[in-house]
Amino acid sequence: MSTLEKNPLEKKIDVILEAVQSFGLNFIQKMGELKHSIGILTDQMEKMNNTLITVKGLEPKIDEIGTMKKELLSELHYLQSQIKTSSFKNSDVIKMKVDDESVEHLELLASFRQNLKSYSKIHELTKELETVKKKIYEITGGHRVLFEIGETIKDFNRKESLTDSDIKSLEEKTAFWLNKLK
Predict the structure, then answer these.
(1) What is the Cβ-side half-sphere exposure of residue 58, based on CA atoms within 13 angstroms?
(2) Between 12 and 100, whose confidence is greater?
(3) What long-range pairs does 147-152 form, CB within 8 A, spacing at least 24?
(4) 3-state SS of the chain: helix, strand, coil percent to 5?
(5) Residue 91: pLDDT above 60?
(6) Is the distance from CB of 173 to CB of 167 less than 8 angstroms?
(7) How far is the CA of 136 from the CAs of 42, 90, 96, 180, in angstroms?
(8) Burial of 105 (0-12, 13-18, 19+ CB in 10 A)
(9) Potential cystine with 147: which of 81, 91, 128, 142 (Cβ 3.0-4.6 Å)?
(10) Residue 58 has what pLDDT?
(11) Would you kindly state where each structural domain of the chain is located, as residue ranges?
(12) Per-residue DSSP letters for 49-88?
């Protein structure tokens, strides 16, 4: 036997060492790729986190813009109603007559307020509120309360169901309207 020839045991050891070496190199290569991927993902997560913080910082400003928009729309509707009612007036000041008819309308609003809890559907409530609004218009010829009732009707028409807080809010509003109409 020559010195160059290896015995079968050495050959098997060489094959095993070669396989282990190949496995080790592949393992090291995959670990490097994984580390690189983790680094890229970490950078992307930091960018996303910074963007999210920026967006969350804009939320109060967006809410403020929405609130201002609602206020402007409310004032615009009020001005429109004032313009419409002022074109029908004969004088600058409307004087309410206190007679049976005006007392009847105040009683109608008071009665509506007392029966609020009996309404289970928004449709019924808004229909009755619309009737009250028309009757108040007949007696006053125009009043700020009519605009407020109209806005309340619009708010209720946007809702799907009637809640206890809606009823409480409407009770407070009707008490306020009654005081304004007296």
Answers:
(1) 7
(2) 12
(3) 147/77, 147/78, 147/81, 147/82, 148/173, 148/177, 149/177, 150/77, 150/81, 151/74, 151/77
(4) 80, 0, 20
(5) no
(6) no
(7) 66, 18, 11, 12
(8) middle
(9) 81
(10) 86
(11) 7-55, 66-181
(12) HHHHHHHHHHHHHHHHHHHHHHHHHHHHHHHHHHHHHHTT
Euclidean distance between CA atoms 140 and 149, whole angstroms: 14
What pLDDT shows up at residue 35? 95
pLDDT given for residue 4 in this prediction: 66
> Phi-psi bin for 5: left (phi > 0), alpha (psi -120 to 50), beta?
beta
Q: Which class in CATH covers the domain with range 66-181?
A: mainly alpha
Token pair 């009519």: residue: 146
In this structure, what token pair is assigned to residue 164?
């206890």
Q: How does residue 181 score in pLDDT terms, banded at 50, 70 and 90?
A: confident
Query: What is the distance between the alpha carbons of residues 30 and 23, in angstroms, rounded to a whole number?
Result: 10
